[in-house]
Amino acid sequence: MVNFKNSALAVLVLTTSATAFTITPQQTNLRSLHTAIAMSTIEPPVRTPETPERIKEVRDRFKSAAIDAANATGCASPDQKDEWWRTPEDQTFREVSKENPLRVIITGGGVAGLVTAAACHAKGMKVAIFEQASQYAPYGGPIQIQSNALRALERINPVIYEEIIKAGTVTADRVSGLKIGYKKGVFMGLGKQFEKGDWLVKFDTLQPALDAGLHATVVVDRPVIQQILLNHGIPDGTVRIKSRINNYEELGKGNGLKINLEDGTTAYADVLVGADGIWSSVRRQMHGLSSDADGFAASGAAGGALTENEARRMAKDSLLMADGANRRYSGFTCYAALADHKASNIEEVSYQILLGKDKYFVSTDGGGDRQQWFALIREPAGGVDPEPTPENPNPKLARLLEEFNNEEPGDKNGDVWDDFAHELLKATKPEDIKRRDLYDGQPLITQGWSNGQVAICGDAAHPMMPNLGQGGCQATEDGYRLAEELSGVKHTQEIEGALNTYFMKRIPRTAVIQTIAQLGSDLLVDFDLMMTIPLLGPFFLTATQLSMPFVLRYLYTPEF
């Protein structure tokens, strides 16, 4: 049944997000001047087929970065004992200077933690990252670094920005949008007959970026991003693996914190930042949540860091953690993989969503003649696939081929799907397919993102559905803004105010984007039914098409 309340809210958010904050005439004039200057210097990208040399470069870079990740290259040696954080400052309540900078510990070594560390390091702070995993891994495949996140990286460290651009594949130079996944009629024949694969809505993700003077969105392998941030953003040994926080103690305003790890190690810092994912240990203590509220949070929409046994256990554990952490099960389980396959439409389409009944199939160019895909299926939380058997050696792939069947009699609803989903599924190694239930959360407007000398960022602060591709991008903005506010601290007693200012500046923007992502995801599976209703279906299609330029302009802002 169509959720009309969510649908109405989604249209309201989509059509008003661009004007969520009032713009003064002075700001408009400055923005127009900035845009005119930027458009005169930024050349719009023109798509050319990837050469064999470029394909090899992208794939080899991924393999090299994955090896570095598995070997924990650049991370601290486990037996190192001379790190700055092992002892407190002689005078914790003190003035901050170049010679005596802020000491910042960040929990979580994913994109949010690495960017935050790079931003703080660029401002002269001492930084350390505590990562609970035993190694980095090729989490979840490529991710999109959208135009707004590229601007944040450029401001943090131009070398990081240039390396990301060099490693990335532009995706904004082709069509993106929504398609109907199968042949679809309308109620009583009143309206358009849709054939499988027909475009419903097309998005232009390039022009809004150019209008804001930003570089076009690129897609980069996650381990490559990690490698770039480790090599160019922070000193060697900044990341300490196998380091999970048990709790922390505030030592008084301006006097820093004592941080206790599960292995018995004690650390001291002026600031603690929780970048440890949706099941954040730091947020659990900061917000006084139950002991069930935290746990391991693999990066990537389908938990690419998890083994099959870990994924099965996490499917059950997440039910308990979600209740303890006040997180929301989105209603979707997500299968995902990276296929070493040149898509049949690669030169025309960079990103598309095939819509169906209670499910949809997302695909995006992964660079190097590869396709990253996600299959989101609406079902209760906690489900797992059958164990492999001789009769069914690849249960995940077998299920997906049935869910998106492109031959008669079709899927369980009798719908015969567009061939493209099958094309990518057939090109995927069964062992590469991961599954994970998707959780998000409501904006933490009243709870806040900081308390005393502790703050959270990224998924710990604003977990969101992946359909906008803004999770990592907003985490990147967080890291930039957090470092900007801390860089103005002249005395440790000002830390609390700086962290609160960081929250106040970030929460309006992330709350809007979280809401758009959540309602937009809910709306995607209702599109199918809405299109059978005269007037209502065309209205939502038109509203979505008209609103997307405003949504993209809101996302692709040079100021955050």
Account of the protein in words:
This protein has 560 residues and is of the alpha/beta class. 38% of the residues lie in helices and 18% in strands. It contains 15 helices and 19 strands. It has helices at 4-16, 25-41, 52-70, 111-122, 147-156, 158-167, 207-211, 222-232, 281-286, 308-325, 395-403, 419-426, 471-486, 495-530, 536-555, and strands at 103-107, 126-130, 142-145, 169-170, 175-180, 199-203, 218-221, 239-240, 245-250, 257-261, 266-269, 271-274, 328-339, 349-356, 359-365, 371-378, 434-440, 450-451, 454-456. Strands 6-5-14-15-16-13-17 form a seven-stranded mixed β-sheet, with helices on both faces. Strands 8-2-1-12-19-18 form a six-stranded mixed β-sheet. Strands 3-7-4 form a three-stranded antiparallel β-sheet. A hairpin with a 5-residue loop joins strand 15 (359-365) and strand 16 (371-378). The longest helix is centred in the last third of the chain and has 36 residues, at 495-530. The chain is globular and about 75 Å long.
Give short descriptive properties of this protein.
six-stranded mixed beta sheet, alpha/beta, about 550 residues
Strand content: 15-25%
Secondary-structure class: alpha/beta
Termini distance? 38 Å
| Main pleated sheet | 7 strands, mixed
Would you count the extended β strands for me?
Answer: 19
Q: List the uncertain runs.
A: 4-40, 299-303
- Average the pLDDT over all residues and give the rounded result: 88
SS summary, helix count:
15
Helix fraction bin: 25-40%
